[in-house]
Design goal:
158 residues; alpha/beta; two-stranded antiparallel ribbon; 7 strands; globular
Length: 158
């Protein structure tokens, strides 16, 4: 599915030069996405990318460490996988003397955004089993350290 299309796309860009530019050190953009149930053991895949303007300054893709029951839960686990790097990047830029006004994470699943920003208050019968450790993002959204915005799947590349 989507993961195979991304891999095909990336293989087709091997010959291109890496180009990076910075528009504003105070605005960090993150794209975080997850694929549900794509490995033989039914685990998902998380991918994240950071940009300060043009190009990916940081990125990763890794297999999720646990099985989940829905794509919404898989996306929430993906955010949890990416959050340490998202926060580290912000703290690193601030430690260099720059002010970070916005640390924006783009997410393509509206249910996940609700769970990540509202925690248990957005939980339903289908998501009550999700452990509270995945609501750490809610605390970081409330403190203003990161914000989450909806971005449709077809616009998840910078």
């Amino acid at each position: 599915g989507k993961l195979k299309r991304v891999i095909r796309y990336l293989k087709g860009t091997r010959h291109l030069k890496l180009r990076l530019s910075v528009n504003n050190l105070g605005v960090i953009h993150w794209w975080v996405d997850a694929s549900y149930n794509v490995h033989e053991d039914c685990k998902g895949q998380t991918g994240a990318m950071m940009s300060l303007g043009k190009g990916a300054a940081m990125s990763f893709s890794r297999k999720q460490k646990l099985n989940v029951r829905s794509s919404t839960e898989g996306e929430l686990v993906g955010i949890d996988d990416a959050l340490p790097l998202i926060l580290w990047a912000r703290y690193f830029i601030e430690a260099q003397g720059y002010s970070v006004e916005q640390n924006i994470m783009f997410q393509d699943n509206k249910s996940t955004i609700l769970l990540a920003t509202n925690g248990r208050w957005s939980s339903s019968k289908r998501t009550k089993h999700i452990k509270s450790r995945y609501f750490f993002i809610k605390d970081k959204v409330e403190s203003g350290e990161v914000s989450i915005e909806y971005r449709p799947t077809d616009q998840m590349f910078c």
